[in-house]
């Protein structure tokens, strides 16, 4: 005990240059072992020691080296304790941060990622995502009303009213904290004569001066016999041809509807008609006897005087015109004018189902048509706002609506623009105050000059095509969203169409009418050329969708007229415009939010398999028929087209398997897969045709001689010995279409070493 006291006293007294030794006796496992330790007030090297480190010795009289090294001075004890505590704290913090980062790291995994049902699939990544059900609830909370204060009595493209609405939209975007910008273009459009007039004179009757007009019609005077051609569709003209009716230099009288004004005029020009008169038949339109119609007849979109490039400044470019401009006259007339002409027609009887007045017209039913439209240049502005994503900010979905109109345009533009602004407000609020963090960005676009053929939207696409085609993965169109019941979209977005049907489950009559199994054939329709979504898909290769919600039994009849007012839209929708607008806005929001929420884009690549195969089957059968009459060489084979179709089918299946089987726990893998998905529509654009001659280059959904549908029609022309048919031209188009499909399959396959080389 005295020895212990002496030792402790020496430790705390801190005598310099001294050390001591003591025996710490401890009962270990039942024996009386003693451990001798050496304590020193300084860390010295002991001379005469027998090596590094102390050793254990029972009742040894030698002083261990380790005892000197670790002297227990108060200073050393405090230092050791602080060091141990610091190491513990650092280790704890490192472990916490590593564990937290693992939880927060965005992943691609989903608990149920399926093409067939986009209503399931709960994401496993914790951030920046929230559960999809929570996203839907949050949108429903934020988007509860749709303000319709963005109205104007006159907002034709380029007018002060149009500019004023654009300023209101961008002011709203700024209020919501969005980054905003504008896109200015100088475009050429055709308006009715400012001082003169357009006119028609039927037989020896009085002169009629219609106030409606068709922009981009040829100007001049045409005189010829009237020929009633139903809706002016290709099938209608084919029936007339089968009846051996001469259509050369005839003035076609056609009903509005079913296809665009531009398609009607283009079809008439193909059979050498001299002019086209378009009227609203009372069986389709209940708009009165004297309501004028407005529209355009450019078989394309955008400014037809800068085809393929943007109208930033006309002085930069030589004079050039789109191939889609007609070379014949086109004019709208009222219901009263059209019915007056029909009642006086003679000639042969109409085909069954063409109308109650059943004469087609003969050579004595002569009419004079004069068109004096004026070409003018207008400055237009597109307005944009963006909500930036938190992971892939350079990938974005675009939501757009036109804001111009021929007249009041309440159904055509006001509702869509109002929904656009309300969606921007709601989603901005979800991000700022609701905790929602979209992975990708959302661009909101207000277009001008939509009534002249999606001019504003197309000029934007032409101006930034190289970047948009790589980064914009979907376009959602809001024009006329409460004026009908249909879903127009590319086939990749069919799963979202199924979601659209489910959003109507409250409407039992609709479900009983279409059912859950045949909705695709009943409601899903190809995009129409007069939709702003069409150039996004067929010109730029961006998956696009347009839809309309309307609980009535018939479509809205007041488009392209001065009767498109709030009152008339309310009368058609049983005064449910605000409710329908909110519901349509929620649906558009669901599509956009799903596309920016999920780790992988919900697009069904296999939907194109059947469409490609159906075209291949038709072409195969027709090629054999043409070869039997020796109009095509026997060496020409459809084998390569069949193999290209198979390559696409295998590539789409392989990507689906990659999604299911790969380890998708990193952002880069998600981005690679999404980029492969995004290439599909873009690679269906034929690289062998000029945007000036064939702007809608999509071989499946576009328009022109490069499409698979055109190949089928060309084979029909060869079979009937049509003078316009060209076997050598067909072979070139056939080879180009084949390789376009194979190129799409190659791109979809991904890496160069993964390509299907069977072709």
Query: β content, as a range?
Result: 15-25%
Strand order of the largest sheet: 3-13-15-14-16-19-17-18
The amount of helix comes to 25-40%
Overall mean pLDDT stands at 83
Total number of strands: 19
First-last Cα distance? 97 Å
Major pleated sheet: 8 strands, mixed
Q: Quickly count the helices.
A: 22
Approximate shape: globular
Radius of gyration: 38 Å
Low-confidence stretches: 3-70, 101-127
Structural class: alpha/beta
How would you describe the overall organization of this protein?
It is found in: Cell membrane; Melanosome. Homodimer; disulfide-linked. It is a single-pass type II membrane protein. With 759 residues, the protein is an alpha/beta fold. It contains 22 helices and 19 strands. The strands form four sheets. The chain has an eight-stranded mixed beta sheet, with helices on both faces. A seven-stranded mixed beta sheet has the order 5-4-12-7-8-9-11, with helices on both faces. Helix 6 links the parallel strand 7 and strand 8. Helix 18 runs parallel beside helix 21 and helix 21 packs antiparallel against helix 22. The longest helix is centred in the first third of the chain and has 31 residues.
Descriptive keywords:
759 residues, eight-stranded mixed β-sheet, seven-stranded mixed β-sheet, 19 strands, globular, glycoprotein
